[in-house]
Amino acid sequence: MRQAAAEHILTPAIRTEDFRFYYGSHEALKGITLSVEQNEITALIGPSGCGKSTFLRSLNRMNDLIPDTRTAGEIWIGGKDITKPAEDTVALRKQVGMVFQHASPFPFSIYDNVAYGPRIHGKVRKAELDELVESCLQSAALWDEVKDTLNKPAGSLSGGQQQRLMIARALATKPDILLMDEPTSALDPISGAKIERLIQSLKTQFTIVLVTHNMQQAARISDRTAFFLNGEVKETGRTEMIFNSPVYEETKDYISGKFG
Ligand SMILES: Nc1ncnc2c1ncn2[C@@H]1O[C@H](COP(=O)(O)OP(=O)(O)O)[C@@H](O)[C@H]1O
Ligand SMILES: [Mg+2]
Fold this sequence. Notes:
It is a single chain. By secondary structure, this protein is α/β, with parallel strands linked by helices. The chain has a single domain (2-255), classed as 3-Layer(aba) Sandwich (Rossmann fold), CATH 3.40.50. The chain has 11 helices and 10 strands. It has a 6-stranded mixed sheet, sandwiched between helices. It has a 4-stranded antiparallel sheet with strand order 2-1-4-5, covered by helices on one side. A hairpin with a 2-residue loop joins strand 4 and strand 5. Helix 7 (159-171) packs parallel to helix 8. The mean pLDDT is 95.
């Protein structure tokens, strides 16, 4: 038992080995070897175009939707290399949820947005769905604001509320891992701060990979940081190390705002 428990703690949630990604002949990721630890927030930082979103989308095979792309190397999640063609991408995306920069609720009610994923996966009993929708909205710190208006269109919510709804929707399939691509960058500071606190509260239950351009945000809430540069991970480590004593000059220059 003790051995098993120790292994559980030591196994990273995600491990990539020399992972490469190509758009046509353009190699956007040039050999990424990176571990993401369970129940931590890992921040991916780096200038625009360095491959952060491409990497994030590789982790739940969202890039499959883009034509003329290919990969090399490995991505290990839950004991499997998920880059293999045989991977069940529907199951993978249930396990590895995603939240984007711009909230994109379906043109349905608040309730139906959260219930969407569970229904696809066969959950249809109303009492069960009601309970799940409530618990996801609670976890996303939105329940108190919407509990009396669940049948209203999701589009009637404010930007910050819609982003929390996207988090609730992602939680509804009971993922282990949450990928977030600049989830606060389109929001006002108050709504953004609310999402930031929410992300922090979620790491007890989930493993989170967060792309952010906001260095204060990365420093405040992440446990580990990976600095991407030109399709490579230039430097990675505990966030306080990366921010206080980076090894490379480029890392120091980027986090101090000299380029970006
Ligand atoms: N759909 C796409 N088709 C072709 N090239 C793309 C596509 N998406 C991104 N790229 C290219 O891949 C590189 C990495 O982009 P991206 O992953 O979006 O970087 P980041 O998220 O760090 O800004 C860039 O050179 C970008 O132009
Ligand atoms: Mg991006």
